Amino acid sequence: MKTQYNEHEILIDELVHLLNGGNAHADLTRALDGLPSNLRGVKPDKLPYSIWQLVEHIRIAQWDMLEFCKDGSHESPNWPDDYWPKETSPTSDEAWNKSVRQINKDTDELMGLAKTGNLFEKIPHGDGQTILREILQAADHNAYHLAEIIMVRRLLDAWNN
């Protein structure tokens, strides 16, 4: 028997799919798969960021969007300084792994917010934002920077996909 979805369920499914990488771009796992650890902190000539800085920026920005959705007392970091790490390389493999784990955890939590079904309600402590807007913004932001990671990998001759 064919399952029938209503428009709201279809939208939720599409948002979850988008947060997981959508149809047209790589997700975080694919963008980082096989990256040699010695290239995490390399900044190719004339580019402003290393892959580490891009990963950390994704983590910080997505965390900020998620916390804004959840907590009226959340204070965002100062833009732009606190959204971009100064260090070009992670201090350790554990720092790298912790950042990647946090991105994945926060992505899962954003998917959970999508599944609550409260997509169109205004966030009480915001100025008109909705959960839908924040999820779309997070997915768009992540896709943009994941593409940059792939571009850096291509410039470093470290992309084979």
Top keywords for this entry?
0% strand, DinB/YfiT-like, DinB family protein, globular, 161 residues, 53% helix, 5 helices, Four Helix Bundle (Hemerythrin (Met), subunit A), mainly alpha
The fraction of residues assigned to DSSP E strands is under 5%
The CATH architecture name reads: Up-down Bundle
- Structurally, the number of domains stands at 1
Radius of gyration over C-alpha positions, nearest whole angstrom: 17 Å
* Sheet having the most strands: none
How many strand elements? 0
Classify the helix fraction into a percent range.
Answer: 40-55%
Provide the low-confidence segments as ranges: none
Domain DinB-like: 25-149
Pfam families: DinB_2 (PF12867)
Protein name: DinB family protein
Write the topology of this structure:
Layout: H1 7-19, H2 28-32, H3 51-70, H4 93-115, H5 131-155
Helix pairs in contact: 1-4, 3-4, 3-5
Plain-language structure description:
- The protein is mostly helical and 161 residues long.
- The model has no long low-confidence stretch (mean pLDDT 93).
- It has a single domain (7-155), classed as Up-down Bundle (Four Helix Bundle (Hemerythrin (Met), subunit A)).
- The chain has helices at residues 7-19, 28-32, 51-70, 93-115, 131-155.
- α1 (7-19) packs antiparallel against α4 (93-115), α3 (51-70) runs parallel beside α4 and α3 (51-70) runs antiparallel to α5 (131-155).
- The chain is built from five helices and no strands.
- It is globular, with a radius of gyration of 17 Å.
Short description:
The chain is mainly alpha-helical.
